[in-house]
Write a structure and sequence with these properties.
alpha+beta; Jelly Rolls; eight-stranded antiparallel β-sheet; about 30% strand; flat
Length: about 400
């Protein structure tokens, strides 16, 4: 599938159009299991992916993807590229769809790109990877899009907070990494974030550092305001915060020998003015806030190839989910952002409206069903109440008959 598509796209170069190269594509059609390898690293803790379009969809066949099927499990599935590649000098576009139809409470929805030497049957959370990208949700506090780059053996998290979608519908996630060391994250083919790799990740040491030799001068006064030396506390300022209640009287039954010496209760002093503080004035010696001088960081080394990796060879889903039901589909890796956008509209865009319509119809049916069950329950409760009242009436008639018989016997 991949090689055929590459040839079709590259024919455009004959007409002077740049050749878009699809490096990997997976729509999870029939036979997908032959192309993907299950890791055995987690043993019995490993969850199983099943082939499904879910409970609601836009197209029963096109929307089939791989779905997590067991709660509280690790999932580890990967596919090898036909040919390993480097993204040096080219755009790298990673794209796929995620559908959390279970209304996920805690779990990953991301992919990882590995080097070609990954042992797929042993892939796990500590397996080194090049890039990790996609949504991650855990409770109300974590609803983010991860973009993690491995640089010189360290996994670097994006410093910006990129919020992911947290509803039950299918969403398209796209990461574009460019040779000018910039990036862009798209959600549903709309920009969610963009910027510079150097600015938004800690790839490099800072360009500037505080001069270790510089110190604030001892006579540097950075107090903007000072106490007014001419201001003095008024003589009548000192008043206690609490005073004995002048209206309180010793109870008539108070016994000093038994109860001790009587003291009136304390109340807030209306004349209390609080702690006295001199008024503030502008400091005539104020020199402003002292700013620590900076110097060029001798450890800073520029790198115009932060974006580049020599070896991409495997893509994998390596994640944990508390509540299963997530569906992954429409995986695409290419060097052409326009091609990715077009494929996104062709696959995700063509079915999203119908998917929502089907879900809305299901919700409406469920609502009506609940209303009918509630009405039936109330009707049954009403019938039971009528039966109870009827029973009470029969008991009263029975008691009246007994009384009549008793009166007749007495006569």
């Amino acid at each position: 599938m991949v090689n055929i598509r590459m040839k079709i796209l590259c024919l455009l170069a004959v007409f002077g159009v740049a050749c878009a190269k699809v490096l990997f594509e997976e729509t999870f059609d029939d036979g997908w299991e032959d192309r993907w390898v299950q890791s055995t690293h987690k043993g019995a803790e490993a969850g199983k992916f099943v082939w499904s379009a879910g409970k609601f969809y836009g197209d029963a066949e096109k929307d089939k993807g791989i779905q997590t099927s067991q709660d509280a499990r690790f999932y580890a599935l990967s596919a090898k590229f036909d040919d390993k590649f480097s993204n040096e000098g080219k755009d790298l576009v990673i794209q796929f769809t995620v559908k959390h139809e279970q209304n996920i409470d805690c779990g990953g929805g991301y992919v990882k790109l590995f080097a070609s030497d990954l042992t797929q049957t042993d892939m796990h959370g500590d397996s080194p990877y090049n890039i990790m990208f996609g949504p991650d949700i855990c409770g109300p506090g974590t609803k983010k899009v991860h973009v993690i780059f491995n640089y010189k053996g360290k996994n670097l998290l994006v410093k910006k907070d990129i919020r992911c979608k947290d509803d039950v519908f299918t969403h398209l996630y796209t990461l574009i990494v460019r040779p000018d060391n910039t990036y862009e994250v798209l959600i549903d083919n709309s920009k969610a974030e963009s910027g510079s790799l150097e600015d938004d990740w800690d790839f490099l040491q800072p360009k500037k550092i505080k001069d270790p030799e510089a110190k604030k001068p001892e006579d540097w006064d950075d107090r903007e305001k000072i106490d007014d030396p001419e201001d003095t506390k008024p003589e009548d300022w000192e008043k206690p915060e609490h005073i004995p209640d002048p209206d309180a009287k010793k109870p008539d039954d108070w016994d000093d020998e038994m109860d001790g010496e009587w003291e009136p209760p304390m109340i807030d002093n209306p004349e209390y003015k609080g702690e006295w503080k001199p008024k503030q004035i502008d400091n005539p010696d104020y020199k402003g806030k002292w700013i620590h001088p900076e110097i060029d960081n001798p450890e800073y080394e520029a790198d115009d190839k932060l974006y580049a990796y020599k070896d991409f060879g495997v893509i994998g889903f390596d994640l944990w989910q508390v509540k299963s039901g997530t569906i992954f589909d429409n995986v695409l890796i290419t060097d052409d952002a326009d091609e990715a956008k077009a494929r996104g509209e062709e696959l995700w865009g063509a079915t999203k409206t119908a998917e929502k319509k089907m879900k809305d119809e299901q919700d409406e049916e469920e609502r009506k069903k609940q209303e009918e069950e509630e009405a039936k329950r109330k009707a049954e409760e009403g019938d039971d109440a009528d039966d109870d009242e009827a029973g009470d009436g029969e008991e009263e008639d029975y008691e009246e008959e007994e009384e009549d018989e008793h009166d007749h016997d007495e006569l």
